[in-house]
Input
Amino acid sequence: MANRILAALIGAAVVGISAQASAGTLEDVKAKGFLQCGVNANLSGFGSQDSSGNFAGLDVDLCKAVAAAVFGDATKVKFTPLSAKDRFPALQSGEIDMLARNTTWTASRDSQLGFDFRAINYYDGQGFMVRKELNVKSALELSGAAVCVQTGTTTELNLADYFKSHNLQYNPVVFEKQEEVDAAYNAGRCDVYTTDQSGLYSIRLSLSNPDDHVILPEIISKEPLGPAVRQGDSKWFDIVSFTHYAMVTAEEFGITQANVEEMKKSANPDIKRFLGEEEGSTIGQDFGLSKDWAVNIIKAVGNYGEAFERNVGQGSPLKIKRGLNALWNQGGLQYAPPIR
Amino acid sequence: MASLDARDGDGRRASLLYDPTARSYVYQALTVLIVVWLIWQAWSNAAENLARANMTAGFGFLSGRAGFDLGQSLIAYSSDSTFARALVVGFLNTLLIGVLGIITATIVGLLIGIGRLSNNWLIARLCTVYVEVFRNIPPLLVIFFWYKGVLSILPDFRAIRAGVEKAKAADPTVGDPLFIISNRGISFPSPIFQPGFTAVWIALAAAVLGAVVFTLWANRQQAATGKRPPALLVSLGLIILLPLVVFLAAGRPLAFDYPVLGRFNLSGGGLISPEFLSLYLALSLYTASFIAEIVRAGIRGVPKGQFEACGALGVHPSRAMRLVILPQAMRIIIPPLTSQYLNLIKNSSLAVAAGYPDLVQVGNTILNQSGRSIEVIAIWMIVYVTISLVTSVFMNWFNAKMALRER
Output
């Protein structure tokens, strides 16, 4: 028996996969009493840490919302700051329960890496940032440029494809950490910085002279960013996905952090059902959550629009417009399945 | 032997249980079995865990399209190449840093080590400061220091370009500069060998061969007559003049690819990137500080009498160091030197901090794009073990050659 355990331990150490209890992620999270969420620590607006160690951002809010749905308490979440390279092994090994780190949903990540994606909390696309003094108007003028890029990202692949398909030469300067890419671009090591456009807005603010840099109009890729969980636990997958959908649904219904208690008394049966006020409805319980799960989410982080404006929109230094991330009935792509 | 040991006082055969040879075989077999069983368990456990995480295993992914570009490559590589080729590019970049770093570290270390023993107070103190500073900083910080240092000291490329544009505007005959040192690296004209150049290579090989033969003859001449023909002078003359004459006779079959200032960057010519430069300097100078101490210890390990005997015979101190002390010191120096070489090669895996595409950085990218952590880590380990073992074998051979041969 002891040998068996020893062998199992060695095997687990070799793969870095801890032998997990057979119970689902929801039970594990409930048992340990908090949610472990993998986030970015250096991308303001999506996931960043302030000087006192608190995390904030759109992705961070999604983690808080899941914690609120599970525990009714948005503070029961612990954050693991991850680099682009470390994020996938961290999720595969079970070190984190969910990954919300501006991660692009791609077919190979969904299939080959053994993850599940569904909800998209930010529709993004890859863009380019250059110095104003270079007087570049379009990415097609960038032939011969040195391009700073972070390794282990879809960005790196899109970059190669874009320059190849347009017959442009470039010299990639690749780093593992975003801070290193920022520093190299700031020091003039490269002419161009490329990453998701939202990221460029965020990074521009951290440069020594933000006004000296422009973001080019081209968007060269589709980057649907969303939370990822391990494959094979559809119950947990549903909870994470529907937490985001609940935030979108709340915006559709006009339910905000401020008015959620009032809205409970609404005459609209859809709203009553959503907020767990309908007699005999067991939507929350069927997810393995409480009846008022949606109320807890909205109380914790507000609806999707509120979270967006607070973190990346008009209430933030980034001032990103809703664009693709507006609700479907307002010209955007944010659309939630009916919660009934 | 065993049969003798296994007999008791009366010469009868004792039980196998008490036979030391048989027992040792049993223990060894058991150890092998346990090791094999542990490896098998770990393997099957890994496979089981992978299956549970819905992941596949195997090295088939290596033939897939890489899809990313690399900043520096010694062989032809594009984003259409395979993952395997990308790994080879990384491996060659690691070897490049390793070989150049080892050569530089050895030369610098030897000079600093001897310098520390100098009678000149200033030189000795400067060498001590060098050793103490570099030896006591973690290599990663040394790399950061050089990378940030190199980047911030080198002039900004755009400023240089602006300067050249201005000069061109004032005088249209001005061309692009041949050598440019900027924060984009050091660019220089790179040679293009035209077909006729083969003759020059052959001439060079012949000259080197001739020089070797002449030196051997000179050695024998010296042993026989006590007079040494000017071997160095003749060899140098041969190696320089013969290829030069052939080069001119063949109609100068050599062209240069000159660097051109583009709108953003340099194109054409050769380029040493700041990433390579900083990693190379950091690793060489860091390892040199350890080698300096090994050299100092080696020289100190040669008995003092050897110096004194040289002095008594009137041998000049620098000749004494070169011909008497260092050859004896080498026997002490070589074994610890090997481990410093291995350290340098292994430390080159910190390249990722300076953005240099070595085996680890390329592997990291592949690991991320393909999600094959276990396979990539296995490749890393195998490659580093192989490089280190080959270095080790070579150094052991060299050590055996240099060791004191007792006659």
